[in-house]
Specification:
With 287 residues, the protein is an alpha/beta fold. It has helices at 50-61, 78-88, 112-120, 139-150, 164-174, 192-199, 208-214, 226-229, 235-243, 250-257, 261-273, and strands spanning 4-6, 27-30, 38-43, 68-72, 92-95, 124-127, 153-156, 178-181, 203-204, 248-249, 277-280, 283-286.
Length: 287
């Protein structure tokens, strides 16, 4: 227990001091992330589906390289998947277990190795409970407010209509945090909660880019040389790229293509949507 420290009030994460019921005490095992990092809480069903697991891993994988901390509760299910996905993506992750931090009582016991990995990889475990405090039914909603409170946004992966996950979402709304939700099948009970949240105003997300935008990051497109950029183009699209060594007026380009106008215009429209070309001042340029 010697590596568990009791934080001084001035060491508390500032967002936790802003919530209606701020913690009076905080214990920590590990290291607090740098202050400039952005916190994303990721929560979901303990009884997850393969869809929930896959989308959770994919969304977090796409955050690699950004100063983002993944926050979750160490529980079985989506919480554990989120922590592991963060570690795999070399992201910092912190956990708020529903128990004290001593390994003799840490809940769930099956995730002790995961908890140790979180600490060893530069993250931390945080609890307001005494280090030897065993998990109780009320300690989970209690810790959920800390997860919602520390985060800039809360991402809900899967949730049934009545679940603890939705408690975290409601707390996030009360604390003026953004709530993001992954839409799911209308036939899946695990998606009823998330679909309801979206209907009530939560932001639907299906890609890492959408999560990054919600967190306030500007997404820069990776540099691709021409060979890579146009590798997936059709034969007709590559023909247009070859002709656009210099900007050309639309009518002249269509004449050079030697095809009917409607077909050429449809092709050019598709290429504009794909951000391969753009039209400015009556001339078409390749991007």
């Amino acid at each position: 227990m010697s590596d568990i420290i009791k934080l001084k009030p001035e060491e508390f994460p500032k967002p936790l001091l802003e919530i209606p019921q701020p913690p009076r005490t905080l214990y920590m095992r590990g290291k607090m992330p740098p202050s400039q990092y952005v916190y994303l809480a990721v929560v979901g069903s303990r009884k997850y589906t393969s869809y929930g697991r896959d989308i959770c891993e994919k969304l977090i994988e796409g955050l690699k390289g950004y100063p983002i901390v993944i926050v979750s509760g160490l529980a079985l299910g989506i919480d554990s998947i989120a922590h592991r996905a963060a570690l795999k993506a070399s992201l910092l992750t912190i956990s708020f277990p529903g128990s004290g931090l001593d390994y003799s009582v840490l809940h769930p016991q099956s995730n002790i190795n995961l908890a140790k990995d979180i600490v060893e990889k530069g993250g931390c475990l945080i609890s307001e409970l005494d280090p030897k405090w065993k998990a109780t039914l009320y300690s989970f909603p209690q810790r959920n407010r800390l997860m919602a409170g520390i985060a800039k946004a809360v991402l809900i992966i899967e949730a049934e209509e009545k679940s603890g996950t939705l408690i975290t979402a409601r707390m996030a709304l009360d604390y003026n945090r953004d709530v993001l939700a992954v839409p799911g099948s209308a036939f899946s009970s695990n998606s009823r909660g998330t679909n309801t949240l979206i209907r009530q105003g939560a932001t639907p997300v299906t890609t890492s880019e959408e999560v990054l935008e919600a967190l306030g990051f500007t997404i820069e497109k990776p540099f691709l040389d021409e060979k890579e950029k146009y590798a997936d183009c059709s034969k007709e699209e590559k023909r247009i790229i070859e002709l656009l060594r210099e900007p050309i007026e639309r009518d002249e380009l269509i004449r050079l293509l030697d095809t009917d106008t409607s077909t050429a215009n449809a092709l050019l429209s598709i290429m504009e949507i794909k951000e391969l070309i753009k039209e400015e001042m009556g001339e078409i340029h390749k991007i």
